[in-house]
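Deliverable D5.2: sample structural annotation.
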Amino acid sequence: MGDQDLSNELEGQGYQLTGRHSAVKLCYWTRQSLVNGRDCYKGRFYGIQSHRCLQMSPAIDSCNLHCRFCWRNQGWENDETMTEYDDPEGLLDRSIEAQRRILSGFKGDPAIDLARWEETQSPRHIAISLTGEPTLYPKMNRFLELCHERGITTFLVTNGTNPDALRALDPLPTQLYVSVTAPNAEVFRRLTLPAQEDAWERLRESLAIVRDLKTRRVVRHTLVKGWNLGWVDAYAELDLIARPDFIEPKGYVYMGKSRQRLGTDHVPSHEEIGGFARALARRTGYLLLDESPDSKVYLLGARSDGRFLDGLAPERGEPLPVLA
C-alpha cells in the first residue's frame, strides 16, 4: 500500500497483510464455527464449512464505490484496475499462512475440538471479498485457477460495476455474488457514491452478463431502512435481467465504519426483510427456500426441489459445483 499509517490501522483491526495490496481477516463465523460449532448462513444455504473458510481480498486499496453501509475503511482507495498488484502464486500461499497464524492461538483452548482445529489448517473455501472491489485485481483468473487446482472452492463477491472483468473470468469462481444495493440510478448514486458517472449502467450490463455464466450465481440485496428498502418491482426487474440461481435479501448491520455514516434507525428487522423477500418472491416467481434470523437474510431460489436446486441451474440443466 505504501501507507504505513494505514497499514498499522488495518493490522490493529485484525487484518493480516499478505502483500502490498492484499489481506486476510478472520471472519466472525469462522471463529463461531470453531469455538461454538455455529456456521454462518452460507453453511445453511450452500454447505460451506465456516471453520474451513478463508476470507481475503487481493485489492484492499481498490474500490470504485463508497457505500454508506460498508463497514470497511474508506477514502484512500484507487478506483480503476490495479497497475501494481501482488502475484497470485505467492498471494494464495501467504493467505493460507496468514489464516493459520490467526488460528494458531485457538489450539491451546481446552474447549476446542482438536480435530476440528486441524481441519482449519487446510481451507476448503476462499471468500474473495473482505474489503475493496476484487474484480479490479488484474490476475483474478490465475488466482482462481490456483485455488481450484488445490481443491479450494471460491466465492467471488463483486459490486457489479466492472462488466469487462466478468466477461474475462476464466475459470469462473465456484460461486459468484453480485451486490445489487439500489433499485434505481438515483438511489444508487446517493447510497453508494460511485467514482464513475456510468457505474449504474455498468451494473445493469453486468447483470445481463451474469445471466449466461455457467456457475452458481447469487444476487444479493443489502437493504438499509430509509435508504433502499422497498421498490420491490424495481428490484425484481433487475433480478430478472440476471436470473440468478439464488437471490439473497439481507439486512444492513450497524457495525464498523458504517456507524460513522448511518444510525441504528437504518437497521431493518428480520421481519421487515422477510416482508420484502416474500413480496420479491411473488414478483419474480422465485420461491422462498430458507432464512437465517442471526444474519437477517432470506434465500430465494428458482426451484422448489431442495436448497441446492437438485444440483441443476434453472433454465440450463447443467450441474452446479458441490461446495460441501
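Annotation notes: Confidence is low (pLDDT under 50) at residues 305-324. The CA atoms of residues 225 and 265 lie 7 Å apart.
The annotation will be released with the project's public dataset once the embargo ends.
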